Amino acid sequence: MTGPAATELPPVESLTERQLRGVDCVLCQTRLNNATAVDLGRREVDAHGMRTLWYPRTCAGCAP
After folding, report:
1. Residue 55 has pLDDT above 80, yes or no
2. Residue-averaged pLDDT of the chain
3. pLDDT at position 4, please?
4. How far apart are CA 53 and CA 31, in angstroms?
5. In a domain, 64, yes or no
6. Total domain count, the chain
């Protein structure tokens, strides 16, 4: 798989709340806004024993 959905991300449990919410880049922690954020696509993650959907975002500098 190629493209944003194929981007390998750090483990969810290692991310800050701001990274999880898409406020900061999931890779480098740069602050994002709607004009600068790059959506990495929908991901399924395990959150406390339950599968949930997550929509991570990154900055243009880290985008694939």
Report:
1. yes
2. 89
3. 58
4. 22
5. no
6. 1
- Candidates 10, 48, 47; CA nearest to 29 is 10
Two tokens, residue 45: 């993650």
Structural domain boundaries, residue 53: 4-58
Cα(41)–Cα(39) distance, integer angstroms: 6
- What number of CA atoms fall less than 13 Å from residue 53's CA on the CB side? 5
- R_g of the chain computed on alpha carbons: 11
User: Strand ranges (DSSP E) for the chain?
Assistant: 38-39, 43-47, 50-54, 57-58
Which backbone phi and psi does 21 adopt, to 5 degrees? -85, -5
Return the residue matching tokens 């602050």.
31
**CA 50 – CA 54 distance, rounded (Å):** 12
Residue 24 lies in a domain: yes
